[in-house]
Design goal:
Blueprint lengths: L13 E4 H6 L1 H9 L4 E4 L6 E3 L8 E7 H9 L2 H16 L2 E7 L2 H7 L4 H14 L3 E5 L2 H14 L20 H13 L1 H11 L2 H6 L2 H5 L6 H12 L6
Parallel strand pairs: 1-2, 4-5, 5-6
Antiparallel strand pairs: 1-3, 3-4
Helix pairs in contact: 8-9
Length: 236
């Protein structure tokens, strides 16, 4: 089982995840109007899979509205999705893009989110996870980009069929420990912290000065980590 649950039987330009297609039939309609060859199938990761010929990389797009993006951060779903996207990038040789649709200022205006916190998460995704994040002002712009980018990859008949290798395997205890740490500080710093403290319990009990002894952890980040483990959760 890979990116696609079932590969299309005929040449196509774009595979759209069936859940994404059901929620955004207008996107499907506009791509068809642009005379792109569309297939709708269940994707294990991503929302749009733009196929490419052998001399180019396919593009896997995870589309999120600003509200979707914030919700995925709030429930920690974003880190699980990033793991799958990175696995697809490495094993399927695709370019991965997270497309964030909408104006980030709305989040600050109508929610309790601080814009700097949102930008910090984006910073972590781009720098620590090395995943491209592309802003789109609205759905119309997203559609226009999908059409233009798909056309730049050539005609469907010359595009190579996808390989099916990315799997969702249950995580072992070691992977789950790393997963928890990565949800707090990203993949690079997570490994450094675990090398230093060995267990999540030790990490949770670490003082701010102890945390700052780890390379890449400044006082501000150390205080954030300490606060995560020592602040009472408030149900919203």
């Amino acid at each position: 089982m890979g990116i696609l649950v079932e590969a299309p039987l005929v040449p196509v330009d774009v595979v759209i995840d069936s859940r994404e297609a059901s929620k955004n039939s207008d996107v499907v309609s506009e791509l068809k109007k642009a005379r792109l060859k569309i297939a709708i199938s269940a994707l294990n990761v991503g929302d749009y899979f733009l196929l490419a010929p052998k001399d180019k990389k396919p593009i896997l797009v995870e589309r999120k509205t600003v509200a979707d993006f914030l919700n995925s951060i709030r429930d920690n779903r974003i880190w699980d999705q990033l793991k799958l996207l990175k696995k697809a990038e490495e094993e399927e040789n695709v370019t991965v893009i997270i497309l964030v649709e909408g104006h980030l200022g709305i989040a600050e205006k109508y929610t309790k989110w601080n814009i700097s916190a949102i930008l910090r998460i984006m910073d972590e995704i781009i720098i620590d996870w090395n995943v491209k994040v592309m802003p789109s002002p609205n759905k119309r712009a997203t559609i226009a980009w999908l059409i233009a980018k798909t056309r730049s990859l050539g005609i469907a008949e010359k595009k190579r069929p996808p390989r099916l290798r990315v799997e969702k395997k249950p995580m072992g205890i070691n992977e789950r420990i790393l997963y928890v740490a990565e949800s707090i500080v990203g993949p690079v710093l997570a490994r450094r912290l675990l090398r230093k403290f060995r267990t999540l319990r030790n990490l949770a009990n670490a003082s701010v000065p102890e945390l700052t002894n780890v390379e890449g952890i400044g006082e501000k980040r150390a205080k954030e980590i300490h606060a995560i483990f020592n602040t009472s959760w408030i149900e919203i």
